[in-house]
Amino acid sequence: MSQRIVVTGAGGMLGRVLTDQARRAGRQVLALTSSECDITDLESVRRHVVTGDVVINCAAYTQVDAAEADEDRAYEVNAVGAGNIAQVCAQTGADLVHVSTDYVFDGVFDGDRRPYEIDDDTKPINAYGRTKLAGEQAVLAAKPDAHVVRTAWVYKGGDGTDFVATMRRLAAGDKAIDVVDDQIGSPTYVDDLATALLEIADGRIGAPVLHAVNSGVASRFELAQATFAAVGADPERVRPVGSDRHPRPATRPNYTVLAQERSVAAGMTGLRDWRDALVAAISAYEGKTTAAGKGAAGQLPSTP
Ligand SMILES: NC(=O)c1ccc[n+]([C@@H]2O[C@H](COP(=O)([O-])OP(=O)(O)OC[C@H]3O[C@@H](n4cnc5c(N)ncnc54)[C@H](OP(=O)(O)O)[C@@H]3O)[C@@H](O)[C@H]2O)c1
Question: What positions does the domain RmlD-like substrate binding occupy (predicted)?
């Protein structure tokens, strides 16, 4: 019989998609929002996890800019909270899949830059990255057989506030927009990430650290242009600018492409190319809104 899946951070973007996908696959899921299980409270975590579960930790302090002024709180959630889950899993005999980030890397290379592999040296350059790296370390210290899964630039492209969703809304207007072209990474569709996490949770993959991102390479500018194109807007309305034109409280690394090769060699199914995933995300959203529109029309009172 397959293990029960416990999702922490189940109210977030990834947590919600993962929970839906697991339930649709017929899995038993205990989905815990932050109000149902605060991962910074060891006893709260202990109350929910039993022997034989697999916990997928989607809970995190994810506000990259706010973390600069609030690193203690970010550390409490991203490092202490992650460590709490690992400790409880180790004590109860539950499995653990913990989600981490490309921002554990600095994007600085001695020679030619290349995608980061799972065993490359980490060196975060902002508070969020430091606290997430501390979380990876706390997880593997308390539970060496846990999986730490790094991902990057996650989006759903729906009604939320992720990058693709924002670009989709801007595309519906008629203004030109400036988007940075000197941040380069691995855009990742949240549905594809959830599928990878469920595969990893099945426990047949050997490596403790894995990279789960859509394949290929994109700058924020290219991702914005591709989103405009996918919704039928003119990609030329997106103009490339440097990050210096958009100063933010947290410095972003300018190159954090994650390589999947070693993760695939360890047994993980590689994720599709980011452009195909983006088109799928936009189609899924448009399919849903069209269906909702039809449903609403169907409910209109008929003209007497
Ligand atoms: N989004 C990205 O681009 C991206 C990139 C790389 C890695 N990741 C990683 O992917 C994972 C999922 O991120 P996401 O994009 O789904 O973020 P999200 O939408 O911000 O979700 C994070 C969830 O964690 C919950 N949470 C915060 N503090 C908590 C606590 N103390 N106890 C329990 N739950 C708590 C939040 O609940 P409240 O809202 O109620 O506080 C929220 O539901 C995180 O580990 C993140 O670091 C994301």
Answer: 4-285
CB 136 within 8 A of CB 100: yes
Q: pTM surpassing 0.90?
A: yes
CATH 3.40.50.720 fits 4-155+188-214+255-272, yes or no: yes
pLDDT in tens, 196-222: 999 999 988 989 999 999 999 999 999
Catalytic residue list: 128
b (16+ CB within 10 A) / e for 244-261: eeeeeebebbbbbbbbbe
Q: Measure 91 CA to ligand 1 centroid, in angstroms.
A: 24
Residue with CA nearest ligand 1 atom 7: 101
How deeply is 204 buried, as exposed, middle or buried, from its count of CB atoms within 10 A (0-12, 13-18, 19+)? exposed
Ligand 1 centre from 12 Cα, in Å? 6
Dihedral sign for Cα 155, 160, 166, 170, please. positive
Domain residue ranges of the chain, discontinuous segments joined by +: 4-155+188-214+255-272
